[in-house]
Prior knowledge:
Layout: H1 2-24, E1 28-34, H2 37-41, H3 43-47, E2 50-52, E3 55-62, H4 65-73, E4 79-83, H5 84-92, E5 97-104, E6 108-112, E7 126-128, H6 135-146, E8 153-155, H7 161-169, E9 175-179, H8 182-189, E10 194-198, E11 216-221, H9 222-227, H10 229-248, H11 250-259, H12 266-276, E12 278-282, H13 287-300
Parallel strand pairs: 1-3, 1-4, 7-8
Antiparallel strand pairs: 2-3, 4-11, 5-11, 5-12, 6-9, 6-10
Amino acid sequence: MKKLAYKLLIVAFAVIFLSSCSGNSPETIRIGVLEGPSAVSFIQLIDKPTVLDGQKVEIILKNEPQQIQAMMMQGELDFAILPTVMAANLYNKGVQYHMVACPIWGTLYILTNSNAHKITELKNKTISVFGQSSTSDVLLQRMIQKYKVSNVRIDYTLSTNSDIAQALRLKKIKFAVVSEPLVSKLLARDSSIHCVSKLTCEEFLLNSDKNIFVQTAFLVSDRFITLKPTLVSRVCELYSKSCNFINEQPEKAAKLLIKHKIASDSGLAKQTISLCNINYVGSFAIEEEINSYLQIFYNFNPKSIGGKLPDKDFIFTPNPHSDKLK
Length: 326
């Protein structure tokens, strides 16, 4: 009996010790980030893990938006990066994440390994695009309509950016919409591949010089806003600094891209930075641009953003008393 009591006492002390340790260990702020331009924009935080108020900031890299989407739907992420169109779609379906900023302003390019150099030369051609009703699909179709290019076939067989890039490099396809950083890699590795055109919205806000191509959304969960409101601004500030670092110190940023195998050499890394169009802007400051951008997709195919424009709560407005970014 004494031996049993002694063992039980040891177990009890172990439980108390472990509980104490877990209470002192930092909680985790989980950020879901897509490989590609989003990972480039986060490179400073990827390279140097950060702790905020005792909570570790964990960057979770995924190669497809659907993987980030699944984690959001399961409530596994505090912050996330997604195409703005997909973010609006999820919000309209009740997934409570709010757009806090736009960090990426257009990374899609029409590439070819043929002799074509103009949009008008896409006549009677087949173009590979990843995702029907996706950002690349809708904007490509609008561009084709604007330039009145006839008999263009859009092929959705290849479902990822990587698959399309590989098929273009292997000459299995001739035309494709590709996103950075694979654009830079293709151009560097194969001299027969060149850019026909950047894929854009082909318009600006109220005929001004305000770009509305808010391609990517940085999102924060409703739960995190409620439970840790003061930390929202801190995370946003960290991310904003990482985006600024990319543009203000491209030499150092290029070295980090090489270190983390996003680029293979300095020249490629610098080209990637240039083509990623990184510029962190709080969503509260570009509400009109976001709505105008989403209106394009609603007009083209309402289902692409969940059947309606998201309500005003989709865009996160920081508290001016606690947010240093305001």
